[in-house]
Amino acid sequence: AQSITMSQYTTNLLSKALLLILSLCLSDRLLAQGGYAMEFDGVDDRIEVAHDASLNVTTDASWEAWIYLHDTSSDQLLFAKTTDDINTPGYAYTGYYISLEGQRLTFSQGTAGGTLQQTSSSLDPIDQDTWTHLAIVKDGAAVTLYVDGVDLTQTSGTHASIIGNTADMLIGSWDTDNDPLDGYMDEVRVW
Asked: Nearest 5°: CA angle at 47, between 98 and 24?
């Protein structure tokens, strides 16, 4: 049997730990900005955040996230806090939802009387297999859509106050598994 000193043992252990950390950081599952991205399979994954009155934003709010999409050809839900018609998933009667319609970022808001107000970004701002930062800012009646810090708002609706509701917040797909997100999401913020 070969004996080693404590110093050699510590050096060997640290080298193995460093290699493990590097391999984890370079793997596809941990490409996130902070290393802990939420992964969505594009089929039936979603996160449900239980209703809380603090999520019922009305006139001023911001939503942010980093996304890394494997597929940009289909519609994908990012955030939703809305009551919707069970026969028409994704149609907001109260509340709001933020989605990708193809590669177009869209903010949709239900208003009194069941009309839908939408603001969309210019076409094709979201690249596939690339980390992209999204920010949506609602300031009174105006909504601005940012992709990687650039204002790409193309169509702007006039947005009234958002009508509060008791719905859970959904991230990644509707509760019917429609418009599922296919990729990663990280550093999600609503404020």
From this structure: 105
Q: How far apart are CA 152 and CA 145, in angstroms?
A: 6
In this structure, is the dihedral angle defined by the CA atoms of residues 3, 6, 7 and 10, taken in order, positive or negative? positive
Q: Going from the first residue of the chain to its last (191 residues), give the mean pLDDT of each consecutive group of 10, the final group possibly shorter.
A: 57 46 41 75 94 86 94 90 62 80 86 74 83 93 92 79 86 90 94 86
pTM for the model stands at 0.76
How far, in Å, CA of 161 to CA of 142, rounded? 11
Could you tell me which residues come within 8 angstroms of residue 7 by beta carbon, excluding any fewer than 6 positions away? none
> What whole-number distance in Å separates Cα of residue 173 and Cα of residue 158?
26
Residue 115 contacts residue 147 (beta carbons within 8 Å): no
Residue in this structure with the two tokens 């460093």, named with its chain if needed: 18
Contacts of 58 (CB under 8 A, 6+ apart): 161, 162, 164
Please list, in sequence order, all residues whose beta carbon lies within 8 angstroms of the beta carbon of residue 35, skipping any fewer than 6 positions away. 25
Amino acid at 105: L
Contact 65, 191 (CB under 8 A): no
